[in-house]
Fold this sequence. Notes:
Strand order of the largest sheet of chain B: 3-8-7
Pfam families (chain B): DHHC
Largest interface: A-B, 74 and 77 residues
Number of helices of chain B: 17
Mean pLDDT of chain B: 70
Order of helices and strands of chain A: HEHHHEEH
Strand order of the largest sheet of chain A: 1-3-2
Strand content of chain B: 5-15%
Shape of chain B: elongated
GO molecular function (chain B): protein-cysteine S-palmitoyltransferase activity
Protein name (chain B): Palmitoyltransferase
Order of helices and strands of chain B: HHEEHHEHEEEEEEEHHHHHHHHHHHH
Number of strands of chain B: 10
Family (chain B): Belongs to the DHHC palmitoyltransferase family.
Oligomer: heterodimer
Low-confidence stretches of chain B: 1-14, 22-28, 337-467, 474-484
Strand content of chain A: 5-15%
Radius of gyration of chain A: 21 Å
Distance between the termini of chain A: 22 Å
Distance between the termini of chain B: 34 Å
Helix content of chain A: 40-55%
Number of strands of chain A: 3
Subcellular location (chain B): Membrane
Low-confidence stretches of chain A: 142-159
Mean pLDDT of chain A: 77
Radius of gyration of chain B: 29 Å
Shape of chain A: elongated
Amino acid sequence: MSTEFHNLQELRHSVSxxxxxxxxxxxxxxxxxxxxxxxxxxxxxxIERTLLxxxxxxxxSYYAETEKMGGQSYLEGCLACATAYLIFLCMETRxxxxxxxxxxxxxxxxxxxxxxxxxxxxxxxxxxxxVIEVSVFxxxxxxxxxxxxxxxxxxxxxx
Amino acid sequence: MQQLGVAExxxxxxxxxxxxxxxxxxxxxxxxxxxxxxxxxxxPGRNKFYCNGRIMMARQTGVxxxxxxxxxxxxxxxxxxxxxxxxxxxxxxxxxxxxxLFVFVLGxxxxxxxxDPGVLPRATPDEAADLERQIDVANGSxxxxxxxxxxxxxxxxxxxVKLKYxxxxxxxxxxxxxxxxxxxxxxxxxxxxxxxxxxxxxxRNYRFFYMFILSLSFLTIFIxxxxxxxxxxxxxxxxxxxxxxxxxxxxxxxxVCFFSVWSIVGLSGFHTYLISSNQTTNEDIxxxxxxxxxxxxxxxxxxxxxxxNCCAALCGPLPPSLIDRRGFVQSDTPLPTPPTNxxxxxxxxxSQSHMAAATPxxxxxxxxxxxxxxxxxxTSLGGPCSxxxxxxxxxxxxxxxxxxxxxxxxxxxxxxxxxxxxxxxTDGVHHHFLTPEEAPSPPGMLPCGSPLGHSxxxxxFYNPASQDSLHEDSVRGLVKLSSV
Lengths: 159, 484
């Protein structure tokens, strides 16, 4: 019972999503995948402007590279057509490879920059490439001062 | 920001616990609870899925089977009756080439029919709420009797393009996307809905569609030409009528091919033109980029020259499907805007039963919630609430109900009128359709205008547990506490 109580305190004081901020797509250059680099005002107090802008710019450059129509993508397209697209049973498309790279990048950014500030970026592919969802985590520690002692004990147990 | 000083040192270690994968924390213990359901089983559009989600087609597939039967029978007759004669008399290359064409036609047909055309997944409730909030802010909350049409303007390469808001999918459609009312999905770079292939033709399967009709034109012409050759060669020896008696199948083949050639070759030509100018059928019919609309009207998506346009359409990178049909549904994954035909929400039934169990304690919850920072836009107006409301005793805003029923009533009306941007592709017959500007605003919108305004005043009062598993955990914790 005491462990349940402890868990409850941890839950009550653990993070919860207070709000979600969405960075929308930027269609000014056509239908290629780009996100707006305009800094959302809701995050002003949570993160430095330049960090987020850098992340979005890097993501934009990755997406641009993915959709770039150059020799390599044409070659891949022709080869795929010639093999009746059976080649994709064996190998990944360039697009899929890039998406994996982007996922890795987002995860790395989350670990290094966003999680310490209580934010979490969601990979746009999970939102249909429409938005970059930034989850803003708020501490629920304000639910009662009587729990402050267990707050610190809960905190120390987590370390 | 409400942070106690004592909570501050905790902040570091708490946040370091956030799973940096996009799944929300505390989900793993509960994966076992919800039955393992694949996402295609809960797909909100009107599509049929086969082979456990690998194959995706439209609802009406009758004409597709007709297409398949026609191709199989005509080709079968050709290979059985004409090829033996021709390969002996002329060259054995004929059945070989015919065979290659036939295989290519079937391959591209299946690829077109079975793949995802580029369906855009519907907005999650959070996104939808956020967008609604932005629209209300932009329009002013007291927008009068009828909310203005929801459009956003964007300048693409110098041309002003209007992005329309899709009421079914609750998103602003990207440029060139359109909502197919037959499949009830928004499709990227929507070309048209083709009943002959039993699917929409969009960004992801346009090249297969084009190669299908191109190869089918070649196959049709090929069969037509060689059947005629066959009959002529035979009639040199036997006379025309005897020749026909010997090869009755040829007559059927000629008839089928003759009627197909005009439509299919015509269609190939039309789509070749579309590809070279980088337009969709939709845009061409509406004359979106025609110079008749204005001197400065041009296609902002065209790459400039025909070669680049063709390469881009046919050999460009193929984006993966956005809807992840075969993935498993996570109970805490934000659910997309639910379908109006009442497909049950898997996660919410579980959580709602817990909510019901915790009902006596829920009364204290709102007190705690409102003490915290207000949660703007957290109200979910979609389906996850629809399961919750009948359970009673929930501190839900009463105005949510009329919004839901109103929503349900409104959608079919919108679908009929303003979403009719697709056109049925039937051998070049173009149906007239209404653009959203021409279609009258559905009267069903009128009573819905106000509830949408009301719902935003309810801030963070009711937090659907299906969205926030941590809230569910807290509730469960409260239940445990009560049992002590």
